[in-house]
Specification:
It is a single chain. The chain has 419 residues and is an alpha/beta fold. The protein has two domains: 159 residues, FAD/NAD(P)-binding domain (3-Layer(bba) Sandwich), CATH 3.50.50.60; 200 residues, D-Amino Acid Oxidase, Chain A, domain 2, CATH 3.30.9.10. The protein is built from 13 helices and 18 strands. The longest helix has 16 residues. It is globular.
Length: 419
């Protein structure tokens, strides 16, 4: 490429302006580095916008666990089930699905769970620290995570996921139907029991939280560029981020472009099993009820939460590739789920949305330096957990770039773990 030595460049370019990229930019700017952040969309408008708003310091149960394979056939054949695979995409999906089931073996999930929890640790307090001095601080609200069960006997700590949480001393409690009604008066009386995860928080507006962090980053000098990144290149230890009209040069480059990261790094010989796990939500603008906590309907695998703009219910995993058009029928299925949870809810003013979760088979992201590519750092693949894991990811990436020693074991997040 032959860079000129007098090319104006920044210390770091970050590709991807979701909540992960924004937290990386903020942490780097706090340490005095010049940072440019590039994305084809405005900041925090992808999965960072449309998530369920759960901010959990206790995320430690991966998507693939022992015994899951027994449930998958029933879920997949149900047109309203939590998993949907488009027929044309099935052949492309099967190799990833095999790796996904392999990751759920008992000897693997404990290590994965520990690595997940490292990234989620103290996430509510981290957000409060990041948002201190802003009005958006009030958007991080203490709450329980309620897992609601139709049958009391189903609410058992004997299930594998709850055992994983208990091993890690996640604060849990079991409540009956009467106690559930006290917490959530609008919930259906058909639910006989629930398990609560304590000491959590929820975002009343994930998008507004992201925008508040963008404002703080800009105040520290971070430059935001809205442009599509076509490729990245390196020569003489200088990185070039090649966009539609301009190139941005830097000493270090952080790849935080979610599911699009795989294509950008492929020319360097990394062929990553990163899926666009397409998630839908439905936002009811005039629900006529109030939800006090994050509520998971365990049977239907979806989460409802109160937002500033109404009640949002999110969930489902659709596999169809990155560019396939949304099928908003997947979102409107949530009307039935909402009525099942909250019989008196008004679903007449409902708005659908679809986003792409960047998901690896083992539910862990790639974080840290990329082997054999000096100056390139990964920060992508956070699956369902990006909102909760973003502050710690930003901290870890900043430590890596500054060559600061960390107590975090980086091996679970290595980008070459799939070779």
């Amino acid at each position: 490429m032959g860079f000129s030595r007098n090319v104006k460049k920044s210390d770091v370019v970050i590709v991807g302006a979701g909540i992960i990229g924004v937290c990386c930019a903020l942490k780097l700017a706090e340490r005095g580095l010049s940072v440019v952040l590039v994305d084809r969309e405005a900041p925090c408008e992808g999965a960072s916008f449309g998530n369920a708003g759960v901010i959990s310091p206790w995320s430690c149960v991966p998507q693939s666990v022992p015994g899951l394979w027994k449930k998958l056939p029933r879920w997949v054949i149900d047109p309203e089930g939590p998993i949907f695979i488009r027929k044309r995409y099935l052949a492309s999906f099967l190799p990833w699905a095999f790796k996904f089931l392999q990751a759920g073996k008992a000897e693997k999930v404990e290590r994965i769970g520990d690595a997940m929890m490292v990234l989620s640790n103290r996430s509510p307090s981290h957000y409060r620290e990041l948002l201190s001095g802003t009005s958006e601080l009030e958007l991080v609200k203490d709450s329980y995570y309620i897992f609601a069960y139709k049958k009391a006997e189903q609410a058992s700590f004997d299930h594998f996921g709850w055992q994983m949480r208990k091993k890690r001393k996640v604060p849990l409690s079991l409540i009956n139907a009467e106690q559930l009604q006290e917490l959530e008066p609008a919930i259906s009386k058909k639910f006989e029991a629930a398990i609560l995860i304590h000491e959590q928080a929820r975002a009343l507006n994930p998008y507004a939280i992201g925008k508040a962090l963008v404002t703080k980053a800009k105040a520290l000098g971070v430059q935001f560029i809205q442009s599509e990144v076509k490729s990245i290149q390196t020569d003489e230890n200088i990185w070039s981020t090649n966009c539609e009209e301009n190139k941005y040069f830097s000493n270090k480059l952080v790849l935080a472009a979610g599911v699009w990261s795989a294509a950008l790094i492929r020319p360097f010989g990394y062929f990553l099993p990163l899926q666009a796990e397409r998630g839908y939500h439905l936002l009811c603008h005039k629900p006529n009820i109030v939800i006090n906590h994050s509520v998971m309907d365990v049977e239907h695998m979806c989460v409802a939460s109160q937002m500033q703009s109404g009640i949002r219910i999110a969930g489902t995993a659709e596999f169809a590739g990155i560019e396939a058009k949304p099928d908003h029928r997947r979102a409107f299925v949530f009307k039935k789920a909402l009525k099942n949870l909250f019989p008196s809810i008004n679903v007449d003013h409902a708005e659908p949305w679809m986003g792409r979760r960047p998901t690896f088979p083992d539910s862990l992201p790639c974080i840290g330096p990329v082997p054999n590519l000096k100056g390139l750092f990964a920060a992508f693949g956070h699956s369902h957990y990006g909102l909760g894991q973003a502050p710690n990811t930003g901290q870890i990436v900043a430590d890596c770039i500054m060559d600061k020693k960390s107590n975090v074991d980086m091996s679970p997040y290595r980008i070459d773990r799939f070779k």
